[in-house]
Amino acid sequence: MKNAREGNVILIVEDDYQIAKLLADTLRENGMTVEIACDGSEMDSQFARNEFDLVVLDVMLPGEDGLSLCRRLRTKTTVPILMLTALGHEIDRILGIEIGADDYMTKPFSAREVTTRIRGLLRRASYAPVSRERPKLYRFEGWRIDPLRRQVHDPSNARVPMTTHEFDLLLAFCRNPGCILTREELLAVSHAGLAGPIERSVDVHMSRLRKKFEKDAKDPVFFKTVRLGGYMLTAAVEVT
Fold it and tell me: Where is the Response regulatory domain (predicted)?
């Protein structure tokens, strides 16, 4: 059970004590509760004792590395993950995002900047939140969406591969069926805008989402474009 503590509860998984302490002190100054783990084993122990609102996860860790830990976390929880690394190669960032990280920062970094990123991720996570202990399944027109495992199955029960961005957008629609979601709101629940302008980035990801769900992506039935508004999921969604 989560301890009854005020503010968001953050877990920092970082083997460099000075970095972990600097970041923890800054987050505590901003009203957050912080726990620190130096490796995967301590991370598992922390999760056995507490619930967390966000995990800051270093890539280069002793034993099991951060990418492996991120992948493992994603099989058990939807908690937001911010990855930290000394590696500056774009492929590392892409890999981290694709296996389930929500954001990615390269060392050296400002503790204040990390705090700003964390606040943004917490706002995103609070957008129509789902219980992490017993996450709901969403169903519409035979489709099944599992937020915990981040999996999608089509009406024939075949698993449909989804990128992180596509799944985040889909989840936002399932939580708000029949509601118009603006591009700005969709950007807030995904990282669709990291690669370019908001309009182009969101539209590109929506186009890919339609190709996976619609019989005719050019004449969508489920994901409708609302002129001067944004997008809307028209199907009735069942929560089980």
Answer: 9-122
169 vs 30: CA distance, rounded Å: 29
Would the pTM count as exceeding 0.85? Answer: no
Long-range contacts (CB closer than 8 Å, 24 or more residues apart) made by 141-145:
141/222, 141/235, 143/213, 145/170, 145/171, 145/174
Q: Where in the chain is the domain with CATH 3.40.50.2300?
A: 9-125
- Structure tokens, 161: 């591969």
Three-state secondary-structure class, residue 173? helix
Nearest-angstrom CA–CA distance, 194 and 201? 8
Q: How confident is the model over 35-79, as pLDDT tens digits?
A: 999 999 999 999 999 999 999 999 889 999 998 999 888 878 878
Which residue in this structure is represented by tokens 């596509």?
166
Structural fold of domain 138-239: Arc Repressor Mutant, subunit A (1.10.10)
Q: CB burial class (10 A; 0-12, 13-18, 19+) of residue 92?
A: middle
Q: What is the pLDDT of residues 161-186, one digit of tens each?
A: 887 778 889 999 998 999 999 888 88
> Rounded to whole angstroms, how far apart are CA atoms 39 and 181?
39
What are the CA-CA distances from residue 132 to residues 81, 145, 148 (Å)? 14, 15, 8
The whole-number pLDDT of residue 2 equals: 40
User: How does DSSP classify residue 10?
Assistant: E
E strand residue ranges, the chain: 9-13, 33-37, 54-58, 81-85, 103-106, 138-140, 143-146, 151-153, 223-226, 230-233, 238-239
